[in-house]
């Protein structure tokens, strides 16, 4: 369970960095610099996402394997899966649209909302991991 806690804490730290630093800077990008900045962001964020999400996925699978009857584990894994789903179905497609049409205010607002939902889900996942560790 300690691995699950470490992975979900890493996810929260990553997500907080995106929410507090990365996206606000992206939103403030002038329209004239948008295409280049958006491309650079999209390229730069891929590997951190793959690494963090991969670690959470492996830790979640391990936790489900070792304690499938612990509802805290299910809470953690379900919240992490929710964060991944928001990334795949909302944030990534919005980035694609923003790359094509530029910094449209409605699309940026939708991206910031999706990002906050991911942060909330990452926090719930970490709470679940803490609960799972405390019941062991």
Descriptive tags:
single chain; 136 residues; mainly alpha
What can you tell me about this protein's structure?
- This protein has helices at residues 2-27, 34-66, 71-101, 105-134.
- It has 136 residues and is mainly alpha-helical.
- It is elongated, with a radius of gyration of 16 Å.
- It is built from four helices and no strands.
- The protein starts with a helix and ends with a helix.
Mean pLDDT over the full residue set: 95
Secondary structure class reads: mainly alpha
Shape: elongated
Number of helices: 4
> Which H/E pattern describes the elements?
HHHH
Secondary structure: elements and pairs:
Elements: H1 2-27, H2 34-66, H3 71-101, H4 105-134
Give the gist of this structure.
The chain contains four helices and no strands. The chain is an all-alpha fold and 136 residues long.
């Amino acid at each position: 369970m300690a691995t699950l806690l470490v992975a979900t804490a890493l996810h929260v730290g990553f997500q907080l960095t995106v929410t507090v630093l990365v996206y606000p800077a992206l939103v403030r990008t002038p329209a004239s610099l948008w295409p280049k900045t958006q491309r650079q962001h999209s390229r730069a964020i891929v590997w951190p996402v793959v690494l963090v999400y991969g670690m959470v996925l492996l830790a979640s699978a391990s936790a489900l394997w070792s304690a499938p009857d612990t509802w805290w584990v299910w809470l953690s894994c379900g919240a992490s899966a929710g964060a991944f789903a928001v990334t795949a179905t909302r944030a990534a497609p919005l980035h694609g649209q923003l790359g094509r049409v530029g910094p449209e205010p409605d699309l940026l607002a939708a991206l910031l909302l999706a990002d906050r939902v991911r942060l909330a889900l990452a926090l719930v996942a970490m709470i679940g991991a803490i609960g799972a560790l405390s019941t062991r």
